[in-house]
């Protein structure tokens, strides 16, 4: 089984509650590290304008580029659920993983710190609870579950504006995209 996040772009208001909840739960320092973040995109030209939001974290890829680049084997992918994790004890902070990640999910607190990123709230999963970003979302724009089930639910082909090509990254992120306005 491969766990994945489902993001419904049609429901997201860009409130950042998911990102704040993640920071709070994992006691992450303000402005230095973001395991989940929301980006807002404004597009078009008056009167045809649109605003869309993306809530992103690690995509827990099938074939993680970060893991392949790590010379210390500090990044592994769990067999039971496909969650990609970093062993801070093994990480030397070389930043090769950061350069390899198409989602910009790898974070560093300082030049000498080990890499860190979303761990799918493993502590919450072990208690049968949803990741904190999912539990906190007031619009219910975030869900989690088995990748194939979520993909069927969304009916998505993996192509979403402002995200890396899912065919190249093998990311396990399912997005129900908001329809973009036609220009003209």
**DSSP strand count:** 7
| Quaternary structure of the protein | single chain
- Element order: H for helix, E for strand: EHEEHEEHHHEHHE
Largest sheet properties: 3 strands, mixed
Chart the SSEs and their pairings.
Layout: E1 3-8, H1 17-25, E2 36-45, E3 48-57, H2 65-69, E4 75-77, E5 84-86, H3 96-100, H4 122-125, H5 132-136, E6 142-146, H6 147-154, H7 166-169, E7 173-176
Walk me through the structure.
With 184 residues, this protein is an alpha+beta fold. The protein has one domain: 2-Layer Sandwich (Alpha-Beta Plaits). Helices cover 22% and strands 22% of the residues. It contains seven helices and seven strands, in the order βαββαββαααβααβ. It has helices at residues 17-25, 65-69, 96-100, 122-125, 132-136, 147-154, 166-169, and strands at residues 3-8, 36-45, 48-57, 75-77, 84-86, 142-146, 173-176. Strands 6-1-7 form a three-stranded mixed β-sheet. Strands 2-3 form a two-stranded antiparallel ribbon. β4 (75-77) and β5 form a beta hairpin. The protein starts with a strand and ends in an 8-residue tail after the last strand. The model has no long low-confidence stretch (mean pLDDT 89).
